[in-house]
Amino acid sequence: MSGLPQRTLHSRRMRLRAFTSGDVDALFEIGGDPEVMRYVSKPLWTRREQAIEAIERFHASRLEGTGVVWAMADLEGDRVFGYFTIFGLEPAHRRAMFGYALARQAHGKRLASEALPKVLVFAFDELGLRRLEADVDPRNVASRRLLERVGFVEEGLARERYENDGQVYDSVRYGLLARELTPAVRREGLT
Prior knowledge:
alpha+beta; 8-stranded mixed β-sheet; globular
């Protein structure tokens, strides 16, 4: 598979679109916020250039056929407050990883719940994936609940899977098969 499609997805309160150079500061705010990144296995960003490089990687991964990243932007001002990503796509196995992050001011507003069905329907219907996987820090109760609410199944604990800033973290693996996507989630994803 070469050059993945990326169309803009819409929900009641946001659009999910490709990142642009105008999104650097918003993305840096997310990647540089210790509260937002506390459950992420990558180091906290300390330089604005890291956001620039990330946007370049996002575009390259889509062109290379290995992933798609959407900026979550509000409808009124097109301000970015988070992102969803499908990455590590393995076409031979019709499998990919999935993740997301929200800026601190977007926490607790059910924005990820609103967007996730759109991303799932895209992954299964447009990319033709059979399976999506997610690694979640066991302490990240909100993300675990969100995944379980849309049908992801906990498949196991990977002990001491990540090390970041001198701390060692476990990871819980979740999986969702295309055939497990419920009619209710599919409807939300298509509206």
